[in-house]
């Protein structure tokens, strides 16, 4: 086991296994391109070792260049900022082979395809050393694949965790045994968001509030925002498929989190099942679902108060609030039985001082 920053990683692929995969790709490309001079384009930073070793194995004429794409993530992530360096105009009429260290969801691939779509290259191929088939969108064909791997966070051989680990000759996998994943459960106004903000600091967790992500999208006028608004404004739930996909993306954006607090998700049985299935593909699980209990009349008063300052349209009208409770009773309340069956359901009293309630939640979390 090795430690990088605050996390532990265990050995996953040896140097020998990696070099064998690199050699395999070099051989396949040589078969296809030995009679011309292809231009290899490495995607920085992660691919530098792969490119170096591949070129050592490639025994025919070739040229090499690099591009760099930087992505930013978080609640607001909208994609990738592209910067193109050192790819000269001479790629026109040439066969270009992109060399990627790892392909997971395919967001980078999409951006690369977009970048090169205006250039008049003869052929455009994609080679990746590591490939995560379980999360790849499948939008473009990947021409050369070194090793298929599960959807777990890896470091080494050029790949980093917050810039550390690139110099390792082997590949390591994040050790997720001590992860904590929580669902905060309860009616609108129960204090899930407020408490999540304290718990995320205390336990170093990533807080995902589907309501916040929707509101962010509405504020920024995205397609998702426009769709969600039509439901939120009426106090109805946004359709499962949309919400589930969005949630998965939020989790994927934080591959190195020590755990998650899911706030406002799941809200239906289909969402809970999708969450369990999704987490299991990543060797993760929900450890506890903790409900904040409070009665409707207290909650309605809280929400109306919140509506005066937050400007949330769904908090300002008692009939919309009652509709949200109705949605909760019909669609969300059955999740208590779902998590009870798994022995994961806990309830704490959600009425009292904010600090007192945080202490009640911590008591449950500390027993996990
Ligand atoms: P919240 O901030 O959690 O109260 O969510 C505000 C609104 O966003 C809800 O009333 C729903 O319309 C929508 N929403 C948030 N999370 C979900 C979810 N998991 N499933 C469906 N709709 C959701």
Sheet with the most strands, sense and barrel status: 6 strands, mixed
Under CATH, the homologous superfamily of the largest domain reads P-loop containing nucleotide triphosphate hydrolases
Ligand list: adenosine monophosphate
Strand order across the biggest sheet? 5-4-3-6-7-8
| Number of self-contained structural domains | 2
Query: Which ranges are low-confidence, i.e. pLDDT below 50, for 5 or more consecutive residues?
Result: 72-78
Q: Average pLDDT across residues?
A: 91
| Percentage beta strand | 15-25%
> How many helical stretches?
12
CATH fold topology of the largest domain:
Rossmann fold
Residues in helices, as a percent range = 25-40%
Provide the structure class: alpha/beta
> Oligomeric state of the chains?
single chain
Rg to the nearest angstrom? 24 Å
- Helices and strands, in N-to-C order? EEHEHEEEHEEEEEHEHHHEHEHHHEH
Terminal residue distance = 24 Å
Number of strand segments: 15
Q: Using the coordinates above, name the CATH class of the largest domain.
A: Alpha Beta
> Globular, elongated, flat, extended or rod-shaped: what is the shape?
elongated
* Reported CATH architecture of the largest domain: 3-Layer(aba) Sandwich
């Amino acid at each position: 086991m090795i430690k990088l920053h605050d996390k532990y990683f265990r050995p996953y692929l040896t140097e020998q296994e990696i070099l064998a995969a690199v050699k395999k790709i070099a051989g396949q490309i040589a078969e296809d391109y030995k009679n011309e001079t292809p231009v290899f384009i490495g995607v920085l930073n992660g691919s530098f070792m792969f490119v170096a070793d591949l070129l050592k194995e490639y025994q025919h004429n070739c040229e090499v260049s690099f591009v760099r794409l930087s992505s930013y993530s978080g609640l607001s992530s909208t994609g990738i900022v592209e910067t193109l360096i050192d790819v000269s105009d001479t790629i026109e009429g040439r066969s270009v082979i992109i060399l990627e260290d790892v392909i997971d969801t395919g967001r980078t691939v999409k951006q690369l395809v977009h970048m090169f779509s205006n250039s008049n290259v003869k052929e455009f191929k994609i080679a990746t050393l590591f490939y995560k088939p379980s999360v790849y969108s499948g939008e473009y064909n990947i021409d050369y694949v070194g090793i298929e791997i599960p959807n777990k966070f890896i470091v080494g051989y050029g790949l980093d965790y917050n810039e550390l680990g690139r110099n390792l000759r082997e590949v390591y996998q994040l050790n997720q045994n001590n992860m904590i994943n929580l669902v905060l459960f309860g009616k609108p106004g129960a204090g899930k968001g407020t408490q999540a903000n304290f718990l995320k600091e205390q336990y170093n967790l990533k807080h995902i509030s589907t309501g916040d992500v929707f509101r962010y999208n509405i504020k920024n006028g995205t397609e998702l925002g426009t769709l969600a608004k039509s439901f939120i404004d009426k106090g109805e739930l946004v359709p499962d498929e949309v919400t589930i996909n969005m949630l998965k993306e939020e989790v994927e954006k934080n591959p190195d989190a020590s755990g998650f607090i899911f706030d406002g998700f799941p809200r239906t049985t289909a969402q809970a099942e999708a969450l369990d299935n999704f987490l299991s593909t990543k060797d993760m699980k929900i450890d506890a679902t903790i409900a904040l209990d409070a009665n409707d009349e207290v909650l309605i008063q809280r929400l109306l108060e919140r509506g005066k300052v937050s400007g949330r349209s769904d908090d300002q009208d008692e009939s919309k609030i009652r509709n949200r409770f109705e949605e909760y009773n019909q669609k969300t309340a059955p999740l208590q039985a779902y998590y009870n069956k798994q022995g994961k359901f806990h309830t704490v009293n959600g009425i009292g001082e904010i600090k007192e309630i945080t202490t009640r939640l911590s008591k449950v979390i500390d027993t996990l």
